[in-house]
Design goal:
This protein is an alpha/beta fold. It folds into two domains: about 130 residues, 3-Layer(aba) Sandwich (Rossmann fold), CATH 3.40.50; about 80 residues. Helices cover about 55% and strands about 10% of the residues. The chain is built from seven helices and seven strands; from the N terminus they run βββαβαβαβαβααα. The strands form two sheets. A five-stranded parallel β-sheet has the order 4-3-5-6-7, sandwiched between helices. Strands 1-2 form a two-stranded antiparallel ribbon.
Length: about 230
């Protein structure tokens, strides 16, 4: 969904760089959260574009340079971690400020990894809209002259694997607890926990798919490294 551009219809320039920028790009696979962020930003007059995953975000960024990216982490096709790592490696996009939002990756270790990728803020869900708007305004007026260097691919993949493995264990523990409860709950209380089980099961399966893909990438990296040293 592409919002109208009431404020920044004229292109501006990032200080010190000859790169045009435009709307705020929201990257979120949950339609309810995506709509909340769109409405909140539009209400304050910000131009907004929203997409469902990191791959769609890259396709948009190839056409237009956003002023700011607000992205979820756990998403299909390409998640927020992979999106930001890709952006940081490209000189054309490395300075786009990024705000992470997440309900899943909220441990101190998760946040530390997110910030090591070059994010400027981390917001936990459920989102406090007033705090969110203050954060957006602060980021858009900050001097981002100092940015951390991008992680090399191997460092990123290893850190990413660690976060995914931790999340997978956590989701599996949650599912085990829910299954135990479902065996003892009265019938009228079961629907709410069955819904919770379905949501957690979907999240667990998504994390497992991402982890399997990451294992393949690391395995390929290991083979290439072994071949190079032989």
């Amino acid at each position: 969904m592409v919002g109208c551009l009431p404020l920044w219809s004229k292109q501006a320039r990032i200080e010190g760089m000859n790169i045009p920028y435009g709307p705020i790009l929201v990257v979120e696979d949950n339609p309810n959260v995506r709509e909340l962020l769109e409405v909140t930003l539009h209400f304050k007059g910000y131009p907004v574009v929203s997409v469902e995953n990191g791959q769609a975000a890259l396709e948009f960024i190839a056409r237009e340079h956003p002023a700011l990216i607000v992205t979820d982490i756990l998403m299909p096709k390409m998640d927020g971690f992979a999106l930001v790592h890709t952006l940081r490696k490209d000189p054309r996009t490395t300075r786009i400020p990024v705000i992470f939002i997440s309900a899943t990756y909220i441990t101190p270790e998760d946040k530390a990894f997110a910030m090591s990728l070059g994010a400027v803020r981390f917001i936990e869900k459920p989102i406090d809209t007033e705090d969110f708007l203050l954060t957006v305004a602060e980021v858009l007026t900050e001097d981002l002259a100092v940015m951390p260097p991008p992680l090399d691919d191997l460092e990123f993949y290893r850190g990413y694997r660690e976060r995914l493995e931790h999340k997978l264990r956590h989701k599996q523990m949650q599912l085990t607890r829910i299954e135990r409860l479902l065996q003892t709950l009265p019938e009228e209380q079961r629907p709410a926990f069955e819904l919770l089980r379905a949501r957690n099961s979907k999240a667990r399966d998504q994390i497992q798919r991402e982890l399997n893909q990451l294992y393949r990438i690391l395995d390929e990296q290991g083979r290439l490294s072994a071949a190079g040293s032989s």
